[in-house]
């Protein structure tokens, strides 16, 4: 691409980041993110959310949280994909209180949860034996 006189765009870099994340090559995904910045491009929400999702899929949840902080430090707000990945991760580790905090943070940012987020939380409440809260969330979905 560069040999043909073309410069990679954010879309191109995001595709590379996604590919590395799918392969579990998270260090390479981070390197691409850093290359973007070094070339004067500002990573967008898709770039960061893809990496957060990749960290979650490869059980590197603390790295996912660090990436969330980094993106927010750079003025990029997490999207539903980032929040859903983090919520799924903490629920898998049975950190239900933390998942509720993330859910509330998501709502306070005016971000409507999707079906995936609700389902994750409902399952987590069921695993913890709190059927009342699971049913409450289910009712919330029905009302929307």
From TrEMBL:
Is the keyword Repeat assigned to this protein? Answer: yes
Provide this UniProt record's keywords sorted from A to Z.
Answer: Repeat
Highest taxon of the lineage? Eukaryota
* Spans of repeat PPR: 9-43, 44-78, 79-113, 114-144
Is Cell division a UniProt keyword of this protein? Answer: no
List the PROSITE patterns hit by this protein, alphabetically: PPR
Q: Offer an example of a GO molecular function term for this protein.
A: mRNA binding
The record's comment on protein family reads: Belongs to the PPR family. P subfamily.
PANTHER family (UniProt xref): OS06G0152500 PROTEIN, PENTATRICOPEPTIDE REPEAT-CONTAINING PROTEIN 1, MITOCHONDRIAL
Cite the NCBIfam families for this sequence.
Answer: PPR
Protein known as: Pentatricopeptide repeat-containing protein
